[in-house]
Amino acid sequence: MKTYRRQIREKILQALYTLELRDTDIDSAAGWLLTPEILADPKAMKFFNLLLGNIKEHMEEIDRYIAAHTFNWDMSRIAIIDKNILRMAMAELLYCDDIPPKVSINEAIEIAKKFSSTDKSSKFVNGILDAIFNALKEEGKINKNGRGLIDHTPPRAAKTDAKS
Q1: Which of 111-115, 119-123, 156-160 has the highest average model confidence (pLDDT)?
Q2: Which HAMAP family match?
Q3: Residue 160 has pLDDT above 70, yes or no
Q4: Does residue 77 lie in a domain region?
Q5: Taking the alpha carbons of 79, 80, 85, 87 in that order, is the dihedral positive or negative?
Q6: Domain residues for 30?
Q7: Quick one: which of 30, 34, 31, 42 has its CA closest to 2?
C-alpha cells in the first residue's frame, strides 16, 4: 500500500491557502482536493483527518508558538504559504506522536521549496521550526516515544584547551 503523506500535506496546505483567500470552511476546501487514491486508502485518510483535525482544533495555540518565534514579524506579514506550512509542521510536532520531529521539519522545508515564491522561504521555515522544536524539547512538550522519534544524542562536551 502506497503512502500518500507528502501528497496529503500538500493538499492540506492548498486547503489552508484556500481558506485564507475564500469564504469557505476548511473541510470543504480540503475535501475537493483529495484524489481518488487518497480517498480509497484508509491509512491515508486517517492521516489526513488527524493532521487536518489537529490544525483546526489547535490553530490558535499553534499560531502563538509561531508568533513567539518569529521575532520582528507580525503574523499578518508572514507569507500565507509559509505561515500554513509552519502551522502544518507544528501540528505534526505537537500532535502526531508517530512522526519523528526531523521528518516533520524536513517535510515542511521540502514543501516550502516546492510551493513558496522565494528561495528564502525554506530557510525561514527551517529556522522557525528549529527554534520552536528546541523550545518545545526544553519545555518537555514533545512527547514522542519509539525508535527514531526523538534524537537522544547527548550534547557534545565543550572542547578544552590541552595546553594548560
Answers
A1: 111-115
A2: NusB
A3: no
A4: yes
A5: positive
A6: 5-139
A7: 42
Single-letter amino acid, residue 122: S
Report which DSSP code applies to 95.
H
Q: Which three cell numbers stand for residue 98?
A: 508517530
d(CA 12, CA 28): 11
Query: At residue 14, what is the residue type?
Result: Q
Average pLDDT, the chain: 85
CATH number of the domain enclosing 20: 1.10.940.10
Residues contacting residue 14 through CB under 8 Å, at least 6 positions apart: 29, 33
Which three cell numbers, joined as nine digits, stand for 89?
A: 509542521
Identity at 46, one-letter amino acid code: K
In whole angstroms, give the CA distance from residue 150 to residue 99.
10
